[in-house]
Every structure is written in C-alpha cells, then in structure tokens.
C-alpha cells in the first residue's frame, strides 16, 4: 500500500511540474520558429545534427519504436531539441546584437556558451562547492552536538534550536543540489538522470516498475517544460522562507512550541502558496524576485538588529554574514549578462556565498556551544 502511494506521488509530482511560463527570449516568435523548423529539418543554418532524425517527442520520423533516440543520448550528450534551442539562441542573439539590442534570457537563463557539454560551467562548479560547504557545515554541527557537547539524560541536546538548524541544513543542500543540476544542462537530461538514480534506490523487485515508468515519462514529457528550473527556484524559495522563520525564532529567543507554531504557520503558508503559484499558475520571474528579495532583506535586517543589541560572543561573525550577504544580494538584484558568455552576476553571487556559508555555520556552532554552556550553568 505504501509503495502504491509512493508511486502515485511520484507520478503526480512529475505531472504538476509540467506547467511553464516562457521567459523573454523563448517567447520571441523568431526564436520559436527557428526551433520548430530545426526539429523538423535537423538543421540551424548550415549546422545539422545527426540525432535530429528523431523529433522532440522521441518518436522516429520514419521508423518503429525500436528506432527511437537511444537512451544514452539523453545523458551523455545534448538531444535534438537542446541543440536546436542552443544554436537558435546563438543566431538570434547575433541578430539582436547587430540591431543594438541587449541579450535576453532563454528558458530562465542568459545565453551562455557551452564548455564540454555543460551549459553554465562557472555556476555549476560554484554550486557544487556551495553544496560541499553546506554539507561540511551541517556535518560538523551534527558531530559537535552529538559527540562533543554534553547531552541530557534522555540523549537529547541542550541546544533548543537543534532540529531547526538540521532542517535548514537539509534545505540548503537540497537548494544547491538543484542549482547545480539546473545550471548544468537541459531539463530533460538532468531530470532523466535524477529519475534513473531514484529508480535504482528502489528494492530490486520494484525497480522494473520504476524503470518502465521512466521510459514512459521520457516519451510523454513536454519539451517546453523546464522541470529543473522549477525545482531550482522552488528550492530557493523554500530555503528563504524557512530561513526567515529561523531568524525570527532565534533572534527573539522563541522556545515555547505553541508560539513557534503561531509564528511559523503564516510564513509557511505564504511560502507554500508562492511555490504553488509559480508552478501551477504563472512562473513570473519578476514577482518571484520581489518575494525572494523581500524575504532575504527581512531576515538580514532581523539578524542585523539582533547582532547590534545582543552580547553574543560570535556577533562579529554574524555581522560579517549580514554585511556580506547584503552586498552579495546586489548581484542578484542588478543582474547582468554573462561576460564572454561564461561569468554572469549569478555566478559571482555563487562565489560570494562559499566563504559566507563557512562563516555562517561557524556562527551556528558557536551559538550551540554558547547556549549549551548557559543552560548547563542554570542546571548546576
């Protein structure tokens, strides 16, 4: 029974992620016409792609199902639609540049140049480093609480915010994981690989069903839906929403469970509603930027005010993160196209968050030691 619910949830999850609102570049009629023509002819100008004898729905043009596009092409190289999008984008940007127009985003991304098949190599590498930094910080926090600091008689920690920081760590790692996937390749390659990995996590007797579902999904999926983009944006919103809750609870030293629920409930409701709005109604980049900046600025202000009034021994680390985070946020607000097709404002923001993450987790561990020490003094 549980497996059936799991499978049903998995199917519904993939279906709900199919709704997508185009960004400025892919809404361009000339770009759309180019991609459509390429998928029929297999060529963009004088460039032709051998695997474009298969259209984007995976069915062979003049052959039966067993002549469909090989599965390994979905992971080892770009498929027909991805190549059509990429070269149509390059041609369209050359035309825009000749007319004196600025570059625009296509499917949520600036026009980047590929490097060894990776769409945004700088952002991918920096996202992976951020993921590693978050994992290192969360793991060291876990070791500190469970093996270095004293525990209660029931083996629980004295630190009142342990669970909240664990959730924060998991949300952070999830967000940076999807950031790396989103910036690496197209939705199809990224998600097919993730689904395949998920299927191999299943017991052997259930694995065949999930693999069959994967093949059906590959033939069924809509090509104009960037699922990894939705997962990247949704994960970031979820992290920002929870970080705001955590900032309020820690800065105001909220320890009563009922009060925590009263504070968290409306913020969780707003964050969930915003994610559903993006995924099911309108993927509005402008509105999402306003919401994210508002939540980011709010938590920075809360931490800044608390750092100014508290006597916490690690408040200088907190100030460093607040000031550095505020400056880094400017890179997200004042977005600019990639320099030479490789480094854009978002990639630079990824770079700034690596040292800030290290300092942030250092503050969290110091806070755990500080609170534990104070509680032990009260107990004695």
Supply database-style keywords.
380 residues; mainly alpha; two-stranded antiparallel sheet; 13 helices; 2 strands; 69% helix; elongated
Short description:
This protein is an all-alpha fold. The protein is built from 13 helices and 2 strands, in the order H-H-E-E-H-H-H-H-H-H-H-H-H-H-H. Helix 7 runs antiparallel to helix 8.
Overview of this structure, please?
The structure is a single chain. With 380 residues, this protein is an all-alpha fold. It has helices spanning 2-16, 29-41, 73-76, 80-98, 121-148, 162-184, 187-200, 204-220, 227-251, 257-281, 285-309, 315-333, 345-379, and strands at 43-44, 47-48. The chain has a two-stranded antiparallel sheet with strand order 1-2. Strand 1 (43-44) and strand 2 form a beta hairpin. The longest helix is centred in the C-terminal third of the chain and has 35 residues, at 345-379. Mean pLDDT is 81; it is low at 4-21, 55-67, 186-196 and 210-225.
Secondary-structure map:
Blueprint: H1 2-16, H2 29-41, E1 43-44, E2 47-48, H3 73-76, H4 80-98, H5 121-148, H6 162-184, H7 187-200, H8 204-220, H9 227-251, H10 257-281, H11 285-309, H12 315-333, H13 345-379
Antiparallel strand pairs: 1-2
Helix pairs in contact: 2-4, 5-6, 5-13, 6-9, 7-8, 9-10, 9-11, 11-12, 12-13
């Amino acid at each position: 029974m549980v497996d059936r619910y799991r499978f049903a949830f998995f199917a519904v999850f993939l279906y709900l992620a199919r709704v997508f609102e185009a960004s400025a570049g892919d809404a361009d009629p000339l770009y759309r016409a180019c991609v459509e023509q390429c998928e029929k002819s297999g060529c963009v100008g004088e460039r032709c792609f051998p695997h474009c004898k298969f259209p984007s729905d995976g069915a062979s043009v003049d052959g039966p199902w067993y002549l469909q596009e090989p599965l390994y092409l979905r992971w080892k190289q770009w498929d027909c639609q991805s190549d059509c999008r990429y070269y149509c984008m390059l041609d369209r940007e050359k035309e825009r540049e000749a007319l004196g127009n600025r570059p625009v985003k296509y499917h949520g991304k600036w026009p980047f140049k590929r490097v060894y098949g990776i769409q945004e190599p700088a952002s991918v590498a920096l996202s992976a480093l951020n993921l590693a930094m978050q994992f290192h910080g969360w793991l060291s926090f876990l070791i500190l609480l469970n093996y270095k600091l004293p525990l209660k008689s029931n083996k629980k920690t004295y630190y009142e915010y342990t669970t909240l920081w664990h959730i924060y760590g998991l949300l952070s790692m999830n967000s940076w994981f999807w950031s790396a996937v989103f910036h690496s390749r197209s939705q199809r390659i990224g998600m097919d690989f993730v689904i395949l990995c998920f299927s191999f996590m299943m017991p052997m007797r259930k694995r065949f069903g999930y693999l069959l579902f994967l093949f059906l999904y590959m033939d069924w999926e809509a090509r104009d839906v960037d699922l990894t983009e939705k997962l990247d944006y949704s994960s970031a919103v979820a992290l920002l929403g929870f970080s705001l809750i955590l900032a309020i609870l820690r800065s105001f030293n909220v320890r009563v469970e009922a009060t925590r629920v009263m504070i968290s409930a409306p913020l969780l409701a707003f964050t969930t509603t915003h994610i559903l709005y993006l995924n099911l109604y309108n993927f509005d980049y402008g509105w999402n930027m306003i919401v994210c900046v508002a939540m980011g600025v709010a938590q920075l202000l809360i931490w800044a005010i608390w750092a100014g009034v508290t006597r916490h021994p690690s408040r200088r680390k907190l100030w460093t993160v607040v000031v550095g985070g505020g400056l880094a946020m400017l890179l997200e607000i004042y977005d600019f196209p990639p320099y030479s097709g490789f480094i854009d404002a978002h990639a630079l923001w990824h770079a700034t968050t690596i040292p800030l993450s290290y300092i942030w987790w250092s503050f969290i561990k110091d806070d755990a030691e500080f609170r534990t020490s104070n509680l032990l003094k009260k107990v004695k």
